[in-house]
Design goal:
Two copies of one chain form a homodimer.
Chain A: E1 2-10, H1 14-32, E2 35-40, H2 44-51, H3 57-64, E3 68-73, H4 77-80, H5 89-99, E4 104-110, H6 123-126, E5 130-136, E6 146-149, E7 154-162, H7 163-179, E8 183-188, H8 194-206, E9 214-219, H9 220-229, E10 236-239, H10 241-251, E11 262-266, E12 271-275, H11 292-304, H12 308-323, H13 329-332, H14 340-349
Parallel strand pairs in A: 1-2, 1-3, 3-12, 5-10, 8-9, 8-10
Antiparallel strand pairs in A: 4-5, 4-11, 6-7, 11-12
The structure holds 3-isopropylmalic acid (2 copies).
One 3-isopropylmalic acid sits between chains A (75, 90, 93, 245, 278) and B (191-192, 221).
């Protein structure tokens, strides 16, 4: 297969982790006779510095004409601590999600047998966890009108949802549940928010289309608690943009490290693959960041292209590296650790 | 001391848990020579059924003229599963918070020596946790304009903050931090939300007033993760209404049970004390709910009235009940358990 993959390394540790995923993908291509042509493009603070905006048109063209996008991370403390900055890296991410029509963010949470005791949670609570949070990604308070009023003394953001936005996300959730344990949980705050009530009403109306799926409804505060108490109680969770942002980061502690959790964003022609972690600026340039979340995101990429063997091969070699302790310092617990680039090299060599 | 306390039992398990707190307070009053006059009043679904609205004027008058309010819980599944209901129990809670000017919700998270192994989290991660989440309670998306548009196909909620709302909450946070470990963490989503940028900007501007306090800023998604990974890293957290709702429920898993975590809501003349758990309808009427969160909320009530010995006595007897296994079934782990009312009786007798 011939593949064009847009490569958006972004900020902080983005370039380092993306480099390792490239090594792994190239090794896979070599073994399974594919030809990957990588198309690097600018995004985030890196793009602001180079061309003044975080998701330049040229980057969009590269993404839109590729078979998939592999994304690192964006964000820079320089902007975080300046609430008045006009242009910010995150705007690039949001613009990209919107322009590529990536309305569904798929974030699986699972455990790794060899890491299970590294989790802050007890083994019996998490062993066997296998859930997916399907986060709405191009609507909600991330995209509603926002601004200042009253001489800069009032700020507002608007949380808006349209029925069709909820429907298309929920449909993916129902379909996913059908292929898994047939359990769907809609997480909202319908006891307070009108937009959540539209979520609940819309999902309720779809239940009859999928009679085999058991649907439950939970308030986001309760889910934030139950997700830690008993993650095995969940199969597929569907939720709004902001709630999904919070719950997926929270869920990452189950696996023991945020540095392990991959994601895909889908919805239109081209899909995007990225680790759920951020740009982790403190670690940038030090060759210490964990590349596995990005490598596992690449596995999701192959999976979605129905290159199942390739995806499995990546997961196999990742598990092997964990079992043999070829890990970055976040997973080493004071034991021997490897550099980001060394982990990447090891993975590529073992494919 | 002569005390008038408004008693708002509310829905679900509310009446049962509040009853036990009353027994405990009466025992305290007896021992320390206070006179408590309880003023029961309607709220929640119970009030809707009785008089058609969840926070009747009469209830407000009783609250406003009391020295404090003891609150159970509100909420009923009948409303949760009917997104089109016009009157809902939660509106009562929100109206009450607003009309009583309760802009700051104080939610401590701590561990109990005798329960530490019941937490889903590992002992070394949580032992010694002592943090307070100070949640803004009368602003944000809970109180902004909301509604439907486009023939009912679009729903919106508005997340609004005014500078003074952030300032008064943050000031409480700074003051609290000064009395504790002098660490304040402002949790927001300033990389996306304008209202969060106003939070960050406002808190930044206040830093110079409290030079001894070390202030940090975090995005809510990161906090949702770190709170579980390393709760001991936090001292006082200040945050917006919705974020506080999610994070405080999440934090309750640290102590091992939501049935243990008390809260106070303050801001104006009269303060309110309530467990952080909800109405838990599945358990209502069964005499099985854990009353300790409400009992410990009563301890916060005495504390705020500067009746420190009384507050300590309540905490002592609660710890004693836990150590001796006089607990409801949620904490019994299959061992011997006691009824809600039996726990209340035991506590009162041991004061
Ligand atoms: C960087 C930020 C804007 C982004 C988000 O909130 O969506 C990130 O946290 C994520 O989850 O991908
Ligand atoms: C019942 C509900 C409206 C309420 C809230 O969201 O504030 C509850 O979850 C709480 O935290 O007190």
């Amino acid at each position: 297969m011939k593949l064009n993959i847009a490569l958006l390394a972004g900020d902080g540790i983005g370039p380092e982790v993306v480099d390792q995923a490239v090594k792994v993908c190239d090794a896979i291509a070599n073994k399974y006779n594919h030809e990957i042509s990588w198309k690097p493009a600018l995004t985030g603070a890196a793009a602001i510095d180079a061309v003044g905006e975080p998701y330049p048109d040229e980057t969009h063209e590269i993404c839109a004409s590729s078979d998939a996008v592999l994304f690192g991370a964006i964000g820079h403390p320089r902007f975080d601590n300046d609430p008045s900055a006009k242009v910010r890296p995150e705007q690039g991410l949001l613009k990209m999600r919107q322009k590529l029509g990536l309305f569904a963010n798929v974030r699986p949470t699972f455990t790794f047998p060899s890491l299970i005791d590294k989790s802050p949670l007890k083994r019996d609570r998490i062993e066997g966890t296998d859930l997916i949070i399907l986060r709405e990604l191009t609507g909600g308070v991330y995209f509603g009108e926002r601004g200042r009023k009253d001489d800069n003394n009032t700020a507002f953001d608007t949380m808006t949802y349209q029925r069709f936005e909820i429907e298309r996300l929920a449909r993916k959730g129902f379909e996913m549940a059908m292929k898994r344990s047939k359990k769907l949980c809609c997480v909202d705050k319908a006891n307070v928010l009108e937009s959540s009530r539209l979520w609940r009403e819309t999902v309720q109306a779809m239940e009859k289309e999928f009679p085999e799926v058991t649907v439950s409804y939970e308030f986001v505060d309760a889910t934030a608690m139950r997700l830690i108490q008993w993650p095995k109680g969940y199969d597929v969770i569907i939720t709004a943009n902001l709630f999904g942002d919070i719950l997926t980061d929270e869920a990452s502690v189950i696996s023991g490290s945020m540095g392990l959790m991959p994601s895909s964003s889908v919805g239109s022609k081209v899909s995007l693959y990225e680790p759920i972690h951020g740009s982790y600026p403190q670690a940038a340039g030090k060759d210490i960041a964990n590349p596995l979340a990005t490598v596992l995101s690449a596995a999701m990429l192959f999976e979605d292209l129905e290159l199942t063997k390739e995806a499995e091969e990546i997961r196999r070699v990742v598990n092997k590296s964990l079992a043999e302790g070829i890990v970055t310092e976040d997973l080493a617990e004071g034991g021997k650790s490897y550099k980001t680039s060394e982990v990447g090299d090891w993975l590529a060599k073992n494919i």
